[in-house]
Every structure is written in structure tokens, then in C-alpha cells.
Design brief:
The chain is an alpha+beta fold. It contains ten helices and 13 strands. It binds adenosine-5'-triphosphate and magnesium ion (MG).
């Protein structure tokens, strides 16, 4: 009788697992997928919390990606050293591990405990293995009413296998989608290059025209090269392979640095660049390099789509628990019927395409970075008046 009962609960767990697996298989958005996996891991192993870390084999580092108890995404991307963590042990040994009282285990990486504020009394971790290589680690902690056993391990391993397939699929899907769009986008500059090269070869071009065509060739080559690097950034961000290198830093300094970089560009077009910052701003946790890239992209737009002798402003202020950053310009503006499209990959406002060079990828990268930091980005715009982008970034008080 007792055996029967145990059997049926195990069966129930596997039944649950099958339902969850179907759901995972159809989820292609990597972030949603990861949060579904941690929820599912808790459910099937009766754990209170779960987290998932993804492994970057090039940097030999694990990065914290999703957890059931993370209220702010600021902690996403925290690097976890292989040598000093239980998850690292799991990667190195490619084996599951059950640890009672992990806080006493010398492999325990205490920092995670600190940033999640969770006391950890029991832990079960499994490697996520695809084609013989570890892609990450799934950990559940604090089993409801006891410690983890071999049965929990077996169920979690079964879930891990499904989760791994879903993660790999989601990455492949993102890649194929992006590659298709990229190939489509490079056709036009490639055919322009082809035509110019063809004409130059035929020697029927006057010397003065030659110079113009070579300039054109150079501009197209530059545009292809810009497109490839933005494209690579975006592909890495979308597939979750570009990791946020999270540290605490002074964001006021970062704004001053951005101002110094962009003011040269602004002066070339006789633009006035106003930096409006309070004396102090809260320190924030995030990837400084990525955030710098996001602000530079927005400021570059504010310069590129401005009018001669126009103005741009970078302003920041701290509110209760978030930082508000405003980047505004007095430029061309964005027509209302195109406003909903500007964050799409490769989208460029029709009337700007012939006037200003660009790849249409900058804002997609910005949105990824801001949302990856738990923030939001929005804008208002009026044609021939200007555009104002507002970014909010959470910080801890
Ligand atoms: N400040 C702005 N004022 C007016 N239009 C803008 C502004 N910022 C963006 N846009 C419009 O949104 C489009 C998308 O911007 P995005 O930064 O993604 O691409 P881009 O500037 O064309 O190329 P790049 O990848 O080099 O940044 C731009 O092509 C432009 O039409
Ligand atoms: Mg841009």
C-alpha cells in the first residue's frame, strides 16, 4: 500500500514533468523560457527556490541568469567563479550533487546567498549538458519538509534534459531568425558595391567621377562593417550569450564620460550639448560597458537626427528607487505612424534613410541592454520639433 502511494506520487511528478516539458518546448523567448524552467524545477522537486546559471566556455565562467526569488533583474549576469562554487563543481565534474547545509560546504559561493537574501539549508544541483558540453547548471534549494533525495535528483535530471533542449532550440531559433534578416539587409549595400566595382573596372568613368565612386565604396564598406558589429552585439544579447558583467559603479562619472565623447561630434554640427546632472547620483549595479554603449547609441542618434545649430540634452535625476535619464534633441523627429517601429531590428524612418547613414540596429541594442538591467525605455517625438527618450533604471536604496 505504502509502496503504491510512493509509486503514484512519483508518477504524478513525471506526469507534471511531461506537461511542463511540452510547455518549455514551445517557448522560444530565452528569458521567459529560463523563468519557466526555474518555476518548473521548484514544482517537480518540491523546492522553495530555484535558480539557473548559464556557462560561458570561452570565459570559463558561470553567470547567474534567472531565479524564482529574484525581484530585480539587476542581479542577472552576476559572475560565479568556477573554483569557488558548488555550481562550478557541478560544471567541472559534469555530475549532479546533493548538499545538506551548503553554507558549511567550502564550495558554497556565499555571494549568491547575499544577493538573494536566502538562507540555504539544502541544495540539489544538476548540470545541463548538450552534446557532451555543459551549457549551465540548474539548482534547487530548501526542500519543503526535508532534504533532497535520489528521487528528486532523477526528476530534476529529467527536467534538465528537457530544459537543455529548449534552451538550445531557443538560441538556434534566434540565430536563424537574425541571420535571415541580416542577409536580407546586406543585399542592398552589396549590390551597390558590386555596381561601383563593375563601373570602375570598365574604365569608362571620368577621373572626377572615379573619386566620387571610391568615396561611395568606402561609405558602403563602412556601413557594412558597422552593421556587422551591431549585428553581432545584438545576436549575442538575444541569445543570452553576451553576459552582463555586473558591478557597482558611479553612473554620474559615466554620464560625464559620454558627454566628453559626444561633444566632439556635436561641435562638428554646431550643436549645443547640455549636460544636466545633480551633484550626486546613487551608485548603481550594472554592466558599465553595456550601459555606456546604450547611452552612446542614444546620444549618437540625438546628434545624427538633429538640425544644424540644434540642441541636445542629457539629464539624469534620482527618484525613490529608480534613476530617470532623459536624452532629448531638437531634431527631425519621428512621424507618428512610424513611432511604433523604431525599436524593430533594421527599421529606419523612411524620410531619414537617404539623409543620414545608419543600420537601424542601434535602438534594438539599447532596448535589450536597458531591459536586461530591469529598466524601461520610452520616447515622445514630433516631426521637425525633436525627440525625447526617457529611460528608467532601478537601483537599490
Ligand atoms: N533621436 C532621434 N530623432 C529622430 N529619429 C530617430 C532618433 N533616434 C532614432 N531615430 C529613428 O529611428 C531609427 C532607428 O534608430 P537606430 O538607432 O536603431 O538606427 P540607426 O541610427 O539608423 O542606425 P545605427 O545602428 O547606426 O544606430 C533611425 O533610423 C531613425 O530613423
Ligand atoms: Mg542609431
Amino acid at each position: 500500500m505504502k509502496k503504491n502511494k510512493a509509486h503514484s506520487t512519483l508518477l504524478n511528478r513525471y506526469q507534471k514533468l511531461i506537461n511542463i516539458s511540452c510547455d518549455l518546448a514551445s517557448e522560444l523567448d530565452l528569458n521567459i523560457l529560463l523563468s519557466k524552467i526555474v518555476q518548473a524545477a521548484c514544482e517537480v522537486s518540491d523546492a522553495k527556490e530555484a535558480s539557473i546559471l548559464l556557462y560561458d566556455p570561452n570565459k570559463k565562467t558561470l553567470y547567474f541568469q534567472a531565479a524564482t526569488n529574484l525581484d530585480s533583474r539587476l542581479k542577472r549576469g552576476t559572475a560565479v567563479p568556477l573554483d569557488e562554487s558548488i555550481a562550478g563543481w557541478i560544471v567541472n565534474h559534469q555530475k549532479p550533487l546533493i548538499v545538506d547545509n551548503p553554507q558549511k560546504d567550502k564550495r558554497h559561493f556565499n555571494y549568491i546567498g547575499q544577493i538573494t537574501n536566502i538562507e540555504c539549508s539544502s541544495l540539489l544541483g544538476i548540470p545541463l549538458i548538450s552534446k557532451g558540453s555543459v551549457i549551465g547548471v540548474l539548482e534547487v534549494i530548501n526542500k519543503k519538509g526535508g532534504s533532497f533525495n535520489k528521487e528528486d535528483e532523477a526528476v530534476l535530471l529529467a527536467l534538465g534534459a528537457q530544459a537543455t533542449v529548449a534552451i538550445v532550440n531557443s538560441r538556434l531559433f534566434l540565430q536563424s531568425d537574425l541571420i535571415g534578416e541580416f542577409v536580407h539587409e546586406i543585399r542592398t549595400p552589396l549590390s551597390a558595391l558590386n555596381a561601383a566595382a563593375h563601373l570602375l573596372k570598365n574604365n569608362r568613368v571620368h577621373e572626377d567621377q572615379k573619386k566620387k565612386m571610391i568615396d561611395l565604396l568606402e561609405a558602403e564598406i563602412q556601413s557594412l562593417s558597422d552593421m556587422s558589429s551591431s549585428f553581432l552585439d545584438l545576436a549575442r544579447l538575444e541569445s543570452g550569450r553576451k553576459q552582463y558583467n555586473v558591478n557597482e559603479f558611479d553612473i554620474r562619472d559615466l554620464f560625464i564620460e559620454c558627454h566628453e565623447i559626444i561633444i566632439h561630434e556635436a561641435h562638428k554640427l554646431n550643436l549645443l550639448f547640455i549636460l544636466d546632472l545633480p551633484d550626486t547620483l546613487p551608485r548603481i549595479r550594472g554592466d558599465r560597458k553595456q550601459l555606456k554603449q546604450a547611452f552612446i547609441n542614444l546620444l549618437n542618434n540625438a546628434v545624427k537626427y538633429n538640425k544644424i545649430e540644434g540642441e541636445l540634452i542629457l539629464k539624469a535625476k534620482a527618484e525613490q528607487d529608480q534613476l530617470v535619464i532623459i536624452i532629448s534633441d531638437t531634431g527631425l523627429g519621428i512621424p507618428e505612424d512610424e513611432q511604433s517601429r523604431i525599436f524593430e531590428k533594421f527599421y529606419r524612418v523612411k524620410s531619414h534613410r537617404d539623409q543620414v547613414p545608419g543600420t537601424g540596429l542601434g535602438l534594438s541594442v539599447v532596448k535589450h541592454i536597458i531591459q536586461g538591467h530591469g529598466g524601461e525605455i520610452d520616447f515622445t517625438s514630433e516631426v521637425d520639433v525633436g525627440t525625447t527618450f526617457t529611460i528608467t533604471l532601478p537601483y537599490e536604496v
